[in-house]
Specification:
heterodimer, A: 119 residues, mainly beta, 4-stranded antiparallel sheet, globular, B: 106 residues, 7-stranded mixed sheet
Chain lengths: 119, 106
């Protein structure tokens, strides 16, 4: 099992961004993919989760409207997207999978994508 | 939202000590509670899920107990490799939420 995330990004405020999480080694459509934010020196924050099988999607209210989560089943890839970045979006972003209530949440994680937003 | 509060926020202990971290919730999460370990600059690692089920490959010195609104993570005999920040997470209801973390120093 691997979740391989796209590389670090440096962006300016107001720019858009889409980062990716490529899954392999398991049946992609049967595991949820979640996104977790970690701001510098801070804790973990759950952003949202998507089920690739039917694209069912849940967001944290803290991130609803600020980010979009999507999947491309044909490429076994999940995405996290911003329409207009802010400096406060500077953080490490992780993707992680969940197999449902018979399994532990987030048993495999991506390596993280560092997003830096600075003018 | 279910708010998760860990205590203590940090602790210092010696090799071989028994260490206990507590996680309390603003409402019941049943047994849908996980613990993660994160070392500096590393990806979080799942230790325990369903409040007390040890993830495969995790040393048996780690254990979890409790349910409802309070759980504990216990390290029975602290080892040098256990220096890390530990997070609890409820996954009973959306939005899933993490505790603020407990930093364990040796």
């Amino acid at each position: 099992v691997q979740l391989v995330q796209s590389g670090a990004e440096v962006k300016k405020p107001g720019e858009s961004l889409k980062i990716s999480c490529k899954a392999s080694g398991y049946k992609f459509i049967t595991y949820y993919i979640a996104w977790v934010r970690q701001m510098p020196g801070k804790g973990l924050e759950w952003m949202g989760i998507i089920y690739p099988g039917d694209s069912d999607l849940k967001y944290s209210p803290s991130f609803q409207g600020r980010v979009s989560v999507s999947v491309d089943k044909s490429n076994t890839t999940a995405y996290l997207q911003w329409g207009s970045l802010k400096a406060s979006d500077t953080a490490m972003y992780y993707c992680a999978r969940w197999g449902g209530y018979n399994y532990g949440p987030f048993d495999f994680w991506g390596q993280g994508t560092l997003v830096t937003v600075s003018s | 939202d279910i708010q998760m509060t860990q205590s203590p926020s940090a602790l210092s202990a010696s090799i071989g000590d028994r260490v206990t971290i507590t996680c309390r919730a603003s409402q019941s999460f049943g047994s849908w509670l996980a613990w993660y370990q994160q070392k500096p600059g590393k990806v979080p690692k799942l230790l325990i899920y369903k409040a007390s089920t040890l993830e495969s490959g995790v040393p048996s010195r780690f254990s979890g107990s409790g349910s409802g609104t309070e759980v504990t993570l216990t390290i029975s005999s602290l080892q040098p490799d256990d220096a890390a920040t530990y997070y609890c997470q409820q996954y009973k209801s959306y939005p899933w939420t993490f505790g603020q973390g407990t930093k364990v120093e040796i």
